[in-house]
Amino acid sequence: MNALMILTQGIVQGVGFRPYVYRLAVDLNLKGHVRNLGNVVEIIIEGENTSEFVKRLPEELPPIAKIDSMEVSEIEVENYSDFEIIESGDSYSGVSVIPPDIAICDKCLAEIRNPKDRRYKYPFNACTDCGPRFTVIESVPYDRERTSMEDFPLCDDCLVEYKQPLDRRYHGEAICCNDCGPQMAIYKGDDKLDVENPIKKGAEILKDGEILAIKGIGGTHLVVDAYNDDAVKELRKRLNRPNQAFAVMCKDLESLKKYAQLTEKEIDTITSNKRPIVILKKNDGYRFPESLSPGLHNIGVMLPYSPMHYLLFDEGDIDTYVMTSANIPGEPMMIENEEIINGVNDYSLVHNRRILNRCDDSVIRFRNNELSFIRRSRGYTPEPYTINYDVNDLDVLALGPELDVTFSIARGDKVYPSQHIGNTNKPKTLMFLRKAIENMERITKINEFDVIACDMHPHFFTTRLAHELAEKYDAEVLPVQHHHAHTVALANDHGIDELISISADGVGYGSDGTSWGGEILYTDISSFERMGHLEPQLMPGGDVATKYPARMLASILKDDDLIKHYYDYFKYGEIEIRNIKKQIDAGINVGITTSTGRVLDSMAVALEICHERTYEGECSMKLESAAYYTTKKLEIPVIIEDNQLNTTEILREVVRLYQNGEKKADVAAAGQIAVASGLSELAIQAANKKGIQDIGATGGVFYNEAITDCVKNIVENEGFNFIQHLNTCAGDGSVSLGQSIVAKKSKKSV
Hints:
Number of helices: 23
Structural class: alpha/beta
Radius of gyration: 27 Å
Number of strands: 31
Mean pLDDT: 95
Strand order of the largest sheet: 7-6-14-8-9-13-10-12-11-15-16
Largest sheet: 11 strands, mixed
Strand content: 15-25%
Low-confidence stretches: none
Shape: globular
């Protein structure tokens, strides 16, 4: 007989791992114990079959569990009498992490729909295979008393399940029932309604065209009937969100197929236990009002992921609801009952379980059948990334950019990304960022930092926060160029040491102090070199030209005859255009940009598709949707001089073609392809100069399917490897990951 101590790290808490270890040990007639030790699970085994245990342990894991490392050592035999799960300790700080929230499993779903089951219609049903994790945890080890479930002591029946090793609720920290768990209530304004079934009442309210707030697992949705045009428009009015598409939740896959196109990969993703929003193309059966997804050829859809969602559909006869985050645009989701009840909604369906870590829905889009994260949050956070390079031993906190922020914490070769935070130029969102950092410190047990990484922009609130935190932790501040961070996140997805990237987005502070956004970069991970870019253009009024892209169009065209057709897009018509010219000539409040986003926005104006941005990316997204319906191929010449793509001539040709009677869909497609072709040619030139085979695409522009496809085809036809994001965001959601890797790679160990 021999004895072993096994220390496992990975996703080994909150996933039924300890019960699994117990069952395996009993099956092999081994004695000893298993327990949580901080972020590590310790296993002590004694007996004749220890080697078989070590072999089988990683091979038969529960569905959500994952072992990243397993340290096995021989120890003295203690002659244990049996095998048991013992009380957690807090003596070891490893690199394991709590798993993300997981959609309700089939067994729990069957129970809430079974009139004979004691959890019939209970909206908080969960087990070790499903339910909340990240959103309810306060600290590790992951035990009930360190979650918001501590407010709900187990009843006798649940306690039996919790203590029964062969039960799927054995040591399931989120388990509960109607007798001992959280409860729902419904309010009209401040008045609590006296109803037996609050969810059924909610379904009735939605049928009547009212706006209902639903406090869910990790946040709150504002909900209306997706088929009700008046309700959708009223929700827009109250949120001051005139045009941005609303995401919807559909009852089931069969209902979804009636109005959206679905590939096998999209089906696999939307039905996975992570249940993200997936951006899908509308099909010929699409019958929702134009107000739902105005001007777009696609719509964001998710399937139910919590018991309360399924019960809402079961209690009503509507197959699709608008489900949009309950927040003022740019601010964090509401999670406190008082705040929800006093929101813009008519009614509030709330519960009494605390949400400790708010977590927005994840958003995914497939481009040419390849997955791309737009937002990596619920269902994925805080599962760590592995850094695929040799790195230092410094602990790093990376704060991201300013819009669409996530932060990341790095230790060893692991990076823990946060949930979606949002726009930190809003005070409430910046406060959320601070609190989320504190929460992640507790969960990862990393609460001291050597480096605080941030964006190079000196005036970002995250940059200011970096300096404040550096003082707190006695850490060094490391500014990382925006597009360098994008590129490194992409490179890490593929484990590539050198890369030429096309980094195309709306804006990123350049190392020369101007606004970049159409860049060809070489990186060796630690550093970067700018190899080419779009033609620099003037931005009259700075950010005003972003909101009103007609100003940008006037600046780029520099042609009175071409711009005169767009007087209506200027508030003061010809007078405003003359003033813009004077402003440019005088150089007063005029920025310089190489942004691809600004060029695409200008195209949208030129084609009379969109002339005012009311949400991030609106004009470019509507341009893509217009181009989606092209039926005729048009050619726009591409001019490259001094490693710069001439965007002035592209825009002038777009205007000429449109004013000569070509269809806007055809011109939009040609304009996009011209920009994509020019960027591809610049990247190929850079790759040839550096002798590099890998060319990648990153930045928000590469959510555009047509542009991505064009670049991919050109790059591959020239014999290069084209790479795109696999498990990271092309947009700003993975900038903090890139920042942390740069810090871990470029700085020397202490």
